[in-house]
Design a protein that fits this description.
By secondary structure, the protein is an alpha/beta fold. The protein has helices spanning 33-43, 57-64, 84-91, 93-96, 181-189, 208-218; strands at 2-7, 27-28, 31-32, 48-53, 73-78, 101-105, 108-110, 126-131, 143-144, 150-151, 158-165, 193-197, 202-204.
Amino acid sequence: MKVMILAAGEGRRLLPLTQEIPKPLLQVDGKHLIERHVERLVAAGLSSFVINLGHLGHQIERALGDGGKFGAEIFYSKETQLLDTGGGIAAAMDMLGQDDFVVVNGDIYTDFDFNRLNSLAPGVLGHLIMVDNPAHHPEGDFSINDEGLLMEEGICLTYTGISVLSPLLFRHCDRGPFPLRDLLVPASSSGKLRGEYYGGYWTDVGTLLRYEELKAQRG
């Protein structure tokens, strides 16, 4: 499977750090967030990447290059306007191809084992990795029922930004900015979205406070 890493956001809540560096290039324990993603995904046997670029994206391209130093190949989807999570993936569909693909948000930090990601079962449009709700997102996103389907009812969990998605999820979407949730909610309502609970380490590096907490915990 190919991997799409979402790396185009402005990171406004991380100012002033993101005034001069894109969020995925923030460092923890001496390594860029996105570099750690690439290395761990390659170790899991995933070596073909598409990365969308927006705010200060040239720095990400310069840091990762063509992926050769990681044993990977990296292609870049360059956005002239911010397309949000869903729009960013939709704009890169020609590069992602016709098979299921992995999505990873570039601004998370996790110990999730990417070896656990597999192609989707027939009729399934997405498989999302879910965690307990963090303090900044107490309402969560979806619950997981006894059959592993994601639902909007019940005790909800939070989407990690890690998933396997089908290109069929994007077949009728408009090109332009939109959040991925705009596609996930209808897929959930139609019983075509599955989920998996992950109880290990995960954080969304979305604010200065969370970034400082992560560095304090992980170096």
